Automatic annotation (TrEMBL):
It holds the Pfam family KbaA. Involved in the activation of the KinB signaling pathway of sporulation. InterPro entries: KinB-signalling_activ. It is found in: Cell membrane. This is KinB-signaling pathway activation protein. GO terms for biological process: positive regulation of sporulation resulting in formation of a cellular spore; sporulation resulting in formation of a cellular spore. SMART domains: KbaA. Its main location: membrane.
Length: 199
């Protein structure tokens, strides 16, 4: 990829992170910030917006670092295993392993009242659903061989990038970080070829 296209790609992902975090942030905290909009407190609204933009850019940088690591691992794995099917099997195993850990370990560490494990299942299912949708779009864009690797990025790497919010386990932060990470990873996955193809 040409350097100018790489810079455009970097700032485009920054924009996706900033925009997504701003929308999600105001949506999550609408009860808190509604009065600012109703009373038209422009400076207060702008200060909150700038904070969300800054946080969103940090999330997007985390997603971009994860994406670079994914591309590196993917290339090395194909060289080492010399087989898409073997590498895909390993990736599927890791997806299942991370999904199980995401449910069971969160339940183990954060459920103190002996409640049900069911509430800990739906977030992994949501990430998996978004990942499958993005992987399907990637498969349509290129070839069937890319489906598992795309799902691996969207699920395993998103969960790893999401780890700071998982440790805190505060509901608002979980959503505030997860949705921008998913948006940034899907954008990178689907838009990289288009930036590479630009003159």
């Amino acid at each position: 990829m040409k350097s100018r296209n790489l810079v455009r790609f970097f700032f485009s992902v920054l924009g996706v992170g900033a925009l997504t975090t701003s929308i999600v942030g105001f949506a999550i905290e609408w009860g808190r910030y509604k009065e600012l909009f109703l009373s038209f407190e422009v400076l207060e609204i702008l200060s909150v917006l700038f904070w969300f933009i800054g946080v969103g850019m940090i999330f997007s940088v985390i997603a971009q670092m994860g994406f670079v690591i994914f591309l590196t691992i993917h290339r090395f794995a194909l060289e080492i295993f010399r087989s898409h099917s073997l590498w895909n099997s390993i990736q599927l195993f890791l997806i299942i392993f991370v999904a199980f850990d995401l449910v069971y370990l969160r339940f183990l560490f954060f459920e103190k009242d002996g409640g049900s494990i069911i509430p800990y299942i739906w977030l992994p299912l949501f990430i998996l659903a978004v990942g499958i949708a993005a992987a399907y779009a990637k498969q349509k864009q290129s070839s069937k061989k890319t489906f598992v690797s795309a799902l691996f990025l969207m699920f395993v790497f998103t969960v790893m990038e999401w780890f700071p919010a998982l440790r805190v386990n505060e509901e608002d932060w979980l959503y505030l970080m997860l949705l921008p990470l998913l948006a940034c990873n899907a954008f990178q996955l689907l838009m990289l070829p288009k930036f590479q193809a630009r003159a």
